[in-house]
Each structure stands twice: as C-alpha cells, then as structure tokens.
Write a structure and sequence with these properties.
Layout: E1 3-7, H1 11-22, E2 27-31, H2 42-47, E3 55-58, E4 61-64, H3 66-76, H4 89-123, H5 129-150, H6 163-166, H7 169-177, H8 182-186, H9 189-199, H10 202-209
Parallel strand pairs: 1-2
Antiparallel strand pairs: 1-3, 3-4
This protein binds glutathione.
Glutathione binds at residues 10-12, 34, 39, 51-54, 65-67.
Length: 217
C-alpha cells in the first residue's frame, strides 16, 4: 500500500516524510499549494477540517497532525526500518517526553521566527522585531536545556535516534538554512554535534532532495 501524503515542501509534512523514509514505507506526495490557498478548499477541508497540511491517506484510513502520523507509523511498523520509539517502556516514556518538549517548548518560538522572518511579507503583514527578539530569547533558553541533556546522552531520549530527534529536523533546518540563526545551534557544542548527526541521516537528505521551501516569486 502506498501512503498518500497531502502536503507541500513545508516543515510539518517534511516531519512525516522523514518518518516514512526511516520506516521504509512507500509514499506518494499529493501537492497542496498553501500560497494558492488549496488547503482551504472544500475538498481538502473534508480531509483536514482545520485546513493544514500534512494529511495522510492509507487506503481508506485518513489521519492528520504530523506528530500523530509519525507515532502511528512508528508503532504500526515497529519492526520495519529504524526503531523510532525505544525498545523498553522506559525508553518509550523518554521519547514521548522529548516529543512533547519539541511540540510545546521548541516549536512555538521557532515557529514565530519562521512567521516573522521568513513569511511575514509573503503573507502580507509587517514582521515584528519585538516578537523576533522575544522568540529568539525563549528558544535560546530551550536550547540551553538541550545542551545540558545532550552533554549526557547522544540523542534526546537516550543513546538511540528516535522520533523525538526526528521531529526537530524541519524547523531546525529553517533555523540553519533560512532564518540566519545557525549560531543558535553552533554556539552550543552538544546541540551542534547532535544537529550534524541527525541532519546527515540519509532519510533527511532524501527529504531535502524532494525539494526545499521557496517563497512564491
Ligand atoms: N499541528 C499541525 C501543524 C501543521 C501546520 O502548521 N502546517 C502548516 C504548514 S507547515 C500549514 O498548513 N499552514 C497553513 C495554515 O495554517 O493555514 C501538524 O503538526 O500537522
């Protein structure tokens, strides 16, 4: 069965694609152009009533929310491809803990940086320097905690790569590649080594080969 991934070359769909590649699951991308507003079309809203990508369709099963999709495939194909949830219930607990940290602590400030540095003019509103400054400060404090954690274990949940690390790839890529904030990673020795490790995985390179995010001309 080939999984249909509705999305674009955007960070949240990339999270799902990296997981599918790690789990050796075949997929097909159904392009949804956010700048043309295709995610608000009535047909698309039948799949994702909040009007966001990604959504997957697997036969007649439909699922949205990128982290829920990753958890679903990591569990469904536990023994296929890379084990991404940990081998014991204790490891699983730590994977879940760091997945929550990514979603609740890392994502909000980095998302604001993407909106205010990268997207504001394309979306037609002025970027707010105060929000940029506050978000960078918040993110810096979060990354200080990562630095401490990664001085004790190679990856976030322990000495094994997991969904918790993978979930950071798309927005860390934005930090490094398009936001001019690579120093936030590089100034922290262990975070920097972790980023080099996870971003050099063949799965992430394959996702980037599918295309990189570009603003409309
Ligand atoms: N919590 C959702 C967030 C998805 C999300 O923010 N998707 C963005 C693209 S990266 C989107 O569809 N933006 C268009 C919009 O929100 O109108 C998930 O993880 O799937």
């Amino acid at each position: 069965m080939v999984v249909k991934v509705y999305g674009s070359i955007d960070a949240s769909p990339q999270r799902v694609l990296a997981c599918l590649v790690e789990k050796e699951i075949d997929f097909e991308i159904i392009p949804i152009d956010l700048f043309k507003g295709e995610h608000k079309d009535l047909e698309f809203l039948k799949l994702q009533p909040f009007g966001q990508v990604p959504v997957i369709q697997d036969g007649d099963y439909t699922l949205y929310e990128s982290r829920a999709i990753m958890r679903y495939y990591a569990e469904k194909f536990k023994s296929q491809g890379t084990e991404l949830l940990g081998k014991t219930i204790e490891e699983r607990g730590l994977v879940e803990q760091w997945l929550e940290v990514e979603a609740q602590r890392f994502h909000p400030p980095v998302y604001k940086l993407v909106v205010h540095i990268l997207l504001a003019s394309a979306l037609g509103f002025p970027s707010d320097p105060k929000i940029i400054q506050e978000s960078e400060a918040k993110l810096g404090k979060v990354l200080d905690i990562y630095e401490e954690r990664l001085s004790k274990s190679k990856y976030l949940a322990g000495d094994f790569f997991s969904l918790a690390d993978l979930s950071h790839l798309p927005f860390s890529q934005h930090l490094v590649a398009d936001l001019g904030k690579e120093h936030m990673i590089r100034d922290r020795k262990h975070v920097s080594a972790w980023w080099d490790d996870i971003s050099n995985r063949p799965s992430w390179k394959k996702v980037l080969q599918l295309g990189v995010f570009e603003l409309p001309k």
